[in-house]
Amino acid sequence: MNFHTLRSLIKKGQISPVYYFFGREKYLAEILSEEIIKNKIPYEEREYSVFKLELEETGWEEIVNLLSTSSFFSKNKVVIVKTGALPRKKKVESTKEIIFLKNYLSSPSKSSYLIVIGEERSAELFDILSGSPSCTTFFLYPLKPEEIEPLIEERVRENGKKISPSAMAILVEEAQEDLSLVLNDLEKVLVYIGDKDKIEKEDVESLVSYSGRFRIDELIKAIDARDKHSAFRILKDILDNFDPIFIVGTIASVFCRRYNNLLGQESQIRVRNNLNEEEKNKVLKALEKKMKRNEFILKVIFDTDIKIKSNPFNRGMIEEMIAKIIEGEGLTGNDGI
Fold it and tell me: Do 248 and 308 touch, CB atoms closer than 8 A?
């Protein structure tokens, strides 16, 4: 079964009680999950009928209890569980608790829908879930160009617009590297063209985060890896295609989103009852380290943003910013940042 076939079945209301999506194309899982939510949960009820959990933080016993408990506010509920590499102790606990999932699969709730998402396929989970007639398993494979085009066409059509073949070709090519980024870029283009009824190649080239081989998302990856050589090579290409103020603003938006996500994770950890104090403090300490790193990066970016607005043609300011972010403690005295 391919992506579009599965999505079509969900749209028609042919929805399984349980889904297991696994693979690196996580954005496809988001699209499929959103279709399930739209089909089963009215918009005004989603705030208290859609639950997003991390297996690292929540055990199967708690997840199954949530699935099995009737909702006072909505007819249905959707529970999304993201899996990942678990610490050894947590992995042992999860293996012990898997019996709760097995029991649930034998008689799943008729009003709850479980979606399990993992970047890597867990052999244990796959064996259990794929063996259940209540579960649909699906590998999140990289879409082919002919599968990407209908997604873009659909977004354009929903907004009452058309798109030229040359504009479509650019978006499809870029989407093979990062589908989620391109669909976000498409939203920007739709706003940018205003009352025009058709997206042209020039519209895409003038606005989309696109610079041939190297793009701003590749720069972010190099920054994350603290790979200065790659970062400066990518930056040189980007500076030839983008305004320095735009580059700084785009990088800032990425790290602002990350910081907000970390704040949300910290808040959730503090109220978790399924972690003992030692485990909770360990997770909070790891989050604190990430938050300090992010705070440091944002300070460097905002300082650069102020300077570059008074001298927008000074490319050296961005190079200095990238160096400070990558070197961290080397230039600021912030140990471990």
Answer: yes
